[in-house]
Amino acid sequence: MASTFQRRLIDALGTDVARIEPADLAAYGYDAYKEDGNASAAIVPRDVREVATAVRIARECDEPVIPRGAGTGLCGGAVPVKGGLVISFARMNRLLALDVRNRRARVQPGLINLELSSAIARYGVFYAPDPSSQKISTIGGNVGTNAGGPHCLSYGTTTNHVLGLQYVDAAGRIHTTALDDVGYDVTGLLVGSEGTLGLITEIEVRLMRLPEAVRVYVAAFADVESASEAVSAIIGAGIVPVALEIMDKLITQAVEAHYHAGFPADAGAVLLVETAGPLDDMDDAERIIAGIAREHGALSWRAARDAAERAALWAARKGAAGAIGRIAPNYYIQDACVPRTKLPAVMKAVEGIARHYQLPVGNVFHAGDGNLHPLMIFDRREPRQVQAVIDAGNEILQTCIDMGGTISGEHGIGYEKRKTLSLVFSVADLAAMARVRDVFDPMRALNPDKIFPTGAVCGEVKASTAA
Amino acid sequence: MIVSTPYALGNRAPARVEEPADAPRLAGTLAAAAESGSAVVIFGGSTLQSIGNAPQRYDVAISLRKLDRVLQYDPRELTIGLQAGITLEGVARALAQARQFIPFDAPLPRRATVGGTLAAGWAGPRRAAYGHLRDLLIGSTVALTDGSLVNAGGMVVKNVTGYDMSRLYVGSLGTLGAIVRANFKTLPRPPRQRLAIAPLADEIRERTLTALETLAIEPAAALVVDGFFERVPRLRDEDARLLVLFEGSGAVIDRATRELRSALGKCGIAETLLFDETAAADVLQNTIDAYIEPLEDRSVTYRSTGLPQTVWQRALAVCGIASDCDARFDFIADIRTGDAIVRVAGTSGARTAALLGELDAGVRAAVPGLTVLAGDPALRAQIDAWGTPPSTMETLRAIKTRFDPTASLAPGRYVGGL
Hints:
Chain A is α+β, with helices and mostly antiparallel strands. Chain A contains 17 helices and 20 strands.
């Protein structure tokens, strides 16, 4: 029997928008993280007014609200762990306006990342943030986690490309913000807030002009450490290509078995380099980068012949996690970031940790940014292996923190790392974040139990009594 | 009466000036002020204190000049950790050895500080090429009025660990806390710099600016300067000069120059002056200094941000109203970022004071979102720096209340009287 909450949603929005059947709700209970939840109801709104209506009903019925893009998040950010209303933005997926001369576009949150760049390429512009999930993940979800991607090395992460937002607040009111507005940077606060400050319903994005020339190179190394040394040396020499990616042998072999993109599958590690810019600089850049790579033990160096081969290499690189999925019963991908000179040391430490826990580990990561993604293979039917993955993951995070790094470079905190957050931030640091949350969501109705450890509330109480 | 001490703002001077030697003492000073109900203004190099309204109350000035060190810098990381009181020139010097830079592009870099530049939300002309300062800011430490020192971000270049709090303090004009430390991404310095200046007559302006959009090599900055002759030299009889900056390798600069000259030639501009390396940097810096340069005691400078394609419309709207009010004007139109800077002045301070009411009402109505950037303190006191509050005002007020519940930080300075 339908609950009052469910009935009110159906009455206000109809059964096409509001979903209450258990079979439908099951589809909104999970994302790409291991935790599942149970939504009390879900809506698939067609416009912002339907979002606002549903949020007001949820508030009156005391149900939390969980926004959802494509469900590709790796940290449980879209999982309704305490029930509540899931809002799927799948139908709000349009490119609303394109302004090529001013280099901006206005999009709905459900628009798939890659579809934007594909739709506008003929105007000579592109949208830079390119998470590996870009074929399926949405721009709204990318904004929620401040998503990165291989090309962030040169172009910056999602927050550097968001110029304004429309959002629905916890009370169901609609607001707009823009970087050009006077006043505190509300736009910047919302980006990366993982749905805890507002529900993003429109995004104004910055576009960039397509570069005149693009080159992609593949270098083979004996091991991940030497490839990492080469990356640190390239950055240290003051050269910032648009992408510097590493895959180890396990990943490369899985990727090659599936994609046949032409990566050297027998290499201990593969370095993928992309340079872009004026044609005049391309040859010099190759000479310098290839030289540094050879100095650091590159066994081979090869340029992609043409756009088709470049695209094939990138498709394979971005499909790495999926390719592992084909050969492993289960895998767990970690996300952490260290200062770039620490990369060789951290890769060595990761190898040691994996060996200690007897877990096969693959590494596929944004080396130029110091952003690592150890991918541990396990069988979730084996409780001992599950525990080993959890312990090894925590040990890797602690190692990164000890090296001056942090616990998430681009995937977000979500449900998974909310307890780990206090390893990075003090009670006072978290209390400052809680002040912001108090402004937007004092009732903690927006995506509760995400980002913040439960102790943060105590910190907040302490902070306000001190003031 | 206008009080003139280095720490005077509007017609108020502080009862005392504090110069804390470290972050904990700074936090302690903020907490003590908040507790005693004193009003505090935080000072860097005092170059951009002209932004915003003068504070309604003002008891203590806190100078960060003793917090002026580079805290962490390994050039191989392309990141740097800085105390907020270090000058922009000091940062440039630290980075120069490793051929790196941060495009602050703010006025008076020998005095201006990192903390002040961030707090002012300064956005310079090269941001279209290199990003806004807030996009290069990867971490911060801020002293709050409860005496706590809070960190956000870190020393890594990619970080989604918790809210991006650092961005909240950028542009907050010291109304939420005092920035103590700022961590930045640094950029490799382009090997060469060239700045081209050409006269730009009104009749060919539109055609020329359209031609610039199609250059294969995008300029690092492109500005039109009309007036400001004390900072940017006059060319021929034209008031307006086009400034185009290219940065990159020798090959790129040479090609960019050829293509620029060819494009300008087709628009009827035969004459282009070229400045290379430090000379180019000097012209750019002089132009940036002009943004806040007052004309004696008789000017007010407005700033408008918006779409690059509307920069002329906005700049000319302000200039037109100034003319109607019998004021003279100088302006800078940044055709890559969309910033318009217009300085208006009467024939004397008294004359400006007399016409400013009408002028201000006119320009506010014509160009929404206009703010006051600089000018004579007595004149600025006549008008509100911010104009109509934005639609987010309720949220801004709530943020201010959470971070500064007793309104001890520059009360009244910010948007909507915060």
